[in-house]
Amino acid sequence: MTPSQDFSRFVRRPRPIKPQAGQESVWDYPRPPRVESRSERVIVRLGGQVIADTTDAVRVLETSHPPVYYLPLNSFPAGVLVPVQGTSFCEFKGEAHYFDVVAGGIVAPRAGWTYPEQVSGFEMLGTRVALYPGRMESCELNGEQVGFQEGDFYGGWITRRIVGPFKGGPGTGNW
Predict the structure, then answer these.
(1) Per the structure, how many domains does the chain have?
(2) Is 156:149 a contact under the CB 8 Å cutoff?
(3) In CA terms, which of 23, 62, 82, 85 is 20 to 30 Å from 107?
(4) Phi and psi at residue 139, in whole multiples of 5°?
């Protein structure tokens, strides 16, 4: 038995919450992730200002994660997204590049990211940016205030339509 097989005896996969009518379970989302177009109205505020307002979002769905919404880069006013140094890598989407998000005298460091290189299956992300909802003043989907995924790496958007449990918080790293 390998060390990872031995450790797996102690890591319990969570019991998914059964979705009610009109809800989705993150445990029904695929792996590898899927990208889908959405028409919900997305409004994002920072520093007392609306920094994005669009009905042209896409979301990425991945097992155990709340959806991550990507908004068109051109839906943000000039100067709101400030490119910063450093990247990270996703085995599916490729290399992420980051932005500070700036509005109304507030700077949210590295609070947005994009995947500018075209990766098969994720081409729609090349001209879009995702935001950590917990670093914004507010994010709304069709008027509903969005909750955010725990942890400092994932950027999932949680609404009453999404049920977990969600990866990201303490003790969930090996799900």
Answers:
(1) 1
(2) yes
(3) 62
(4) -130, 135
